[in-house]
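Aim 2 progress update. The chain analyzed this quarter is reproduced below.
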Amino acid sequence: MATINIKTDCGNAPKKEFLKQLHIALAQGDSAFVIENIADDVHWEIIGNHTITNKQELEKRLSDNPLWNVTELNLDAIITHGNEASANGSVVTAENLKFAFCNMYKFRGFKGPILKHIKTYIIELK
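Predicted structure tokens:
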């Protein structure tokens, strides 16, 4: 189980709480939580790496390549406004690789947590 470190102000609104739970699910390899909370036509762009353009493609990618074996998640900030949000932090993997990330989110609408668009910036820390 990963060590989870989350700043206290990262969960005081429904969308902030949802994004906190999403990042915990990603860190713990809970692909079912991820899949159930994205739109069928999700667009997830991982800058400099690849782009996923629908839920089926994401499901296949997650089944072929399980999520990282994260040993530590540090979630520094979650910012929400209307149907847009962002989160940033860092992770450490079981192989002791360290990455900093920033995710930009667009929800399907103003109500509910279904994600329509995600843009991920991630860099390895030395």
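The chain is about 25% helix and 45% strand. The chain has a mean pLDDT of 89. These observations will guide the mutagenesis experiments scheduled for the next reporting period.
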